[in-house]
Write a structure and sequence with these properties.
Layout: E1 3-10, H1 12-16, H2 20-29, E2 33-40, H3 44-50, H4 60-67, E3 72-80, H5 82-90, H6 103-107, E4 116-118, H7 122-132
Antiparallel strand pairs: 1-3, 1-4, 2-3
This protein binds adenosine-3',5'-cyclic-monophosphate (CMP).
Length: about 140
């Protein structure tokens, strides 16, 4: 399996609870490298654009309100098979279903306020990385 890159967000619920360092420590402890990182506060329009694939879902409005409600940390993670590994580290979308030791089990409050986001496939990783970072910001 080749080295991959994936896109990760530490969501507003987690930044509000001072969990940025703890979450990054999970990635680094797994040997995952952070090749880009910044703290941002998305406008509602930016959140709508990022989650456009969910625009027909009943939770879309709530999701965009939440993602623009406070600062996030957006990151590009790099490592062997990192797209799948990051999803395993995060755990199930709904923290009630997440395995012990996963980020969402440890830190998420609900399916909406679920602490972290991670790309689900190479194609979405490329789109999501390009949404927030340009080539000069990836190291
Ligand atoms: P994320 O991995 O960022 O991708 C889409 C997000 O939509 C997901 O995490 C959840 O936070 C959110 N989401 C999914 N299903 C629901 C739901 N039923 N109610 C509220 N938010 C949801």
């Amino acid at each position: 399996m080749a080295i991959q890159r994936t896109f990760s967000i530490i969501k507003p619920d987690a930044t509000k609870k001072n969990l940025i360092g703890k979450i990054i420590a999970h990635f680094e402890a797994e040997g995952i490298r952070i090749c880009a990182m910044k703290k941002i506060h998305m406008t509602r329009g930016q959140a709508e654009g990022f989650y456009a694939v969910h625009s027909e879902r009943p939770f879309f409005g709530e999701l965009c309100d939440f993602m623009s409600s406070g600062p996030c940390v957006v990151m590009v993670l790099e490592g062997e098979n990192v797209i799948l590994r990051n999803r395993e580290i995060m755990g199930a979308t709904n923290p009630a279903d997440a395995a012990e030791g996963t980020l969402r089990k440890l830190y998420a409050d609900s399916i909406g306020n679920n602490a972290v986001h991670g790309s689900d496939a190479p194609e979405t990783a490329a789109v999501e990385i390009n949404y927030f970072f340009n080539a000069f910001e990836l190291h």
